[in-house]
Design a protein that fits this description.
The chain is globular and about 90 Å long. The protein is 31% helix and 27% strand. The chain is an alpha/beta fold and 565 residues long. The structure holds flavin-adenine dinucleotide. Flavin-adenine dinucleotide (FAD) is lined by residues 43-48, 73-76, 82-83, 85, 115-116, 147-149, 167-168, 209-210, 307, 309, 340-342, 356-359, 361.
Length: 565
């Protein structure tokens, strides 16, 4: 292995100026001039990592002799074991226990912990973003394996990008856990009954596996954690699961899905079927048909969208996924392969497209690695075929549903099976030991309610309001300056004995909220949305920094305040 690492180490990269004089210089690794066969894997999830692991095993001799190089580009230097992510919400396993360093899993692979910016199929090279310095990295390849998965995208969905929490990555699980603990903290000291109700309402949209597992863990956690708060009663907590279909878990046989649904309801989850999430505001989940649920915690596990890099590829696609042939190679691009959630792979046995699951991504990865090895050696490639072993979904608190080799199991036995199977599949012995210990302790210890304050200063954010919603109230502390991106708001002032008087209406390009920020006083008026409105909000610190260092901006706001007074 040592020789391989040395061969791959970017020993003498040299830099040349970019063709664009204004652009950054470009760093070339020894890959660019290499005589070796360069296999480049994009993505370090189930598909990418298992491709690398299998290639290292199959091409041991070629790697040792320096005839082959394997490279993997991933945004993070770890791979996430997503099936266990829901357990991070409740803290029944530690945050770091769901991830494994890629370097440990594939020590013979050169890892580029970078974002990928562009895949150029015509020039057969990939551009990785600049790291600490300002240099992009061009990575040429002989074989390319695309394993970029899909992404959660709220684009085009009313207020979701601003106010909903996604649930796909490790950071999402941590953010959700922190949000839940934060809302419990706030609810414990909140006097206003309506605000308290919204704080204690948790909404999850999406009744597939990840939504159901997330809602089950969230429900267990908030109800158990509430015991540690002096002023919270478990009966005040409301956990809602929204699902578009008539039955949750459509991936499972109906009897198991019904079992899961009944169990969640028995544990206090309000399951709302045939209900679609339409949008979100800071205070509410908006449902199709105009209904709204007041909440401060909305999680959306839908929709998954193609990775933007995949969407930009000039190749054949089906439902946004890359179409591959029976060997998992792109029909019009030889030696370019795709696996996992981003690939449209037809199973040679069933003729059906492989579903986007971890077990399929892993098997496709092995098939691609074998086919790359076969094409290097001139031996026949094999067609992809895999009979899924089964499907399992955890329902939290010692219950699960599973269909294994056609046998349906539910309850405690399924839960035991779920834990055993996933513990075995979790990569790395150290992680296995940690998770097994966490699970054991979790059976006897109360849930951890520490809120990790990892939020970076926000600076600027977007907010969405539906017609008639209050952006802020007269008398509130003013922490944000708002710019109207689209829509209309009205500014209202309380007049003693006469109620609220309309001061003005503001539309796109106009701003409000500056008086409280400049004078460090409470809000002098109430602002309410007239139409659906999208706002850009700049926080106090960012505003003060600009205001004090940019005289023209200061002049503008001073004039504005004077005029408005
Ligand atoms: C909460 C949750 C629970 C799940 N539970 C199960 C389960 O129980 N069983 C099951 O079979 N499946 C489960 N799945 C689905 C399973 O995780 C996916 O099918 C699987 O991860 C797909 O693997 P992949 O390699 O195709 O993509 P991914 O695992 O998504 O990996 C893609 C990788 O590409 C990287 N990447 C993407 N874009 C870039 C870029 N521009 N630059 C650099 N790197 C980039 C990402 O960082 C990521 O590491 C679950 C999914 C979720 C979200």
């Amino acid at each position: 292995m040592q020789e391989v690492t040395t061969a791959w180490a970017p020993a003498r990269p040299y830099c040349r100026p970019s063709s664009n004089p204004a652009g950054p210089s470009v760093c070339l690794t020894d890959m660019e001039t290499s005589e070796r066969t360069r296999i480049l894997i994009l993505g370090g999830g189930f598909g990418g990592v298992h491709t690398a692991i299998t290639l290292e095993r199959l091409l041991r001799r070629e790697l040792r002799e320096g005839r082959v190089e394997i490279g993997l580009v991933n945004r993070e230097n770890y791979t996430v074991f997503q099936p266990m992510l829901p357990e991070v919400i409740s803290g029944s396993i530690g945050l770091l226990d769901t991830i494994t360093p890629i370097r440990r899993l594939c020590p013979g692979t050169n890892l580029y912990t970078r974002s990928i910016e562009c895949i150029d199929l015509a020039r057969r090279r990939v551009t990785a973003a600049a790291g600490f310095g300002s240099q992009q990295r061009f990575l040429p390849y002989d074989h390319l394996v695309i394993a970029l998965g899909n992404v959660t995208s709220f684009a085009g969905q009313l207020g979701l990008a601003e106010h909903a929490l996604p649930f796909k990555y490790l950071g999402d699980a941590l953010a959700l856990r922190n949000r839940v603990i934060h809302t419990l903290e706030e609810a414990d000291i909140e006097q206003d009954a309506a605000v308290r109700r919204a704080l204690l309402t948790f909404v999850v949209a999406g009744g597939g596996f990840s939504g159901v597992e997330a809602v089950a863990e969230l429900n267990d956690f908030v109800r158990a954690a509430a015991r540690s708060f002096r002023n919270l009663m478990r009966e005040e907590i409301r956990v809602v699961l929204l699902h578009v279909g008539p039955l949750i878990l459509p991936e499972l046989p109906a009897s198991l899905a019904r079992f899961a649904q009944r169990l969640l309801m028995k544990r206090g989850v309000e399951v709302r079927l045939n209900t679609r999430l339409h949008g979100a505001t800071a205070d509410a989940a908006l449902l199709d048909g105009g209904a709204r649920i007041a909440t401060r915690t909305l999680v959306s596990t839908v929709p998954s969208m193609p990775n933007p890099l995949v969407a930009a590829l000039d190749c054949k696609k089906e439902k946004g996924r890359i179409v591959v042939d029976r060997h998992l190679e792109l029909p019009d691009h030889s030696q370019v392969w795709a696996v996992g959630d981003c690939a449209w792979a037809i199973d040679a046995r069933t003729g059906e497209p492989a579903p986007p699951t971890a077990q399929h991504a892993t098997r496709e990865a092995r098939c691609v690695a074998e086919n790359i090895a076969a094409s290097l050696r001139g031996t026949p490639k094999r067609a992809f075929s895999f009979r899924a072993l089964g499907k399992m979904g955890s329902l939290g608190h010692r219950s699960a549903v599973a269909e294994v080799f056609g046998v349906k199991i539910s309850g405690l036995l399924a839960w035991w099976l779920w834990r055993t199977v996933y513990l075995m599949k979790l990569p790395g012995l150290d992680r296995k030991l940690r998770v097994a210990t966490d699970w054991t302790l979790d059976l006897v210890l109360p849930p951890d309610i520490v809120q990790l304050k990892t939020d970076k200063p926000v600076g600027m954010r977007r907010e969405h309001f539906e017609p008639g919603e209050t952006v802020f109230r007269e008398g509130d502390r003013g922490d944000w300056l708002y710019v109207v991106v689209d829509g209309e708001v009205e500014v209202l002032k309380e007049v003693p004995g006469r109620g609220q008087a309309l001061l003005r209406r503001l539309g796109p390009g106009e701003c409000f909220g500056e008086i409280a920020l400049v004078s460090d006083r409470a809000r002098s008026a109430t602002v309410r949305s007239v139409t659906g409105v999208n706002l850009l909000a700049v926080d106090r610190e960012a505003f003060q920094a600009l205001f004090s260092s940019l005289p023209p901006l200061r002049g503008f706001f001073e004039q504005l305040i004077e005029a408005r007074r």
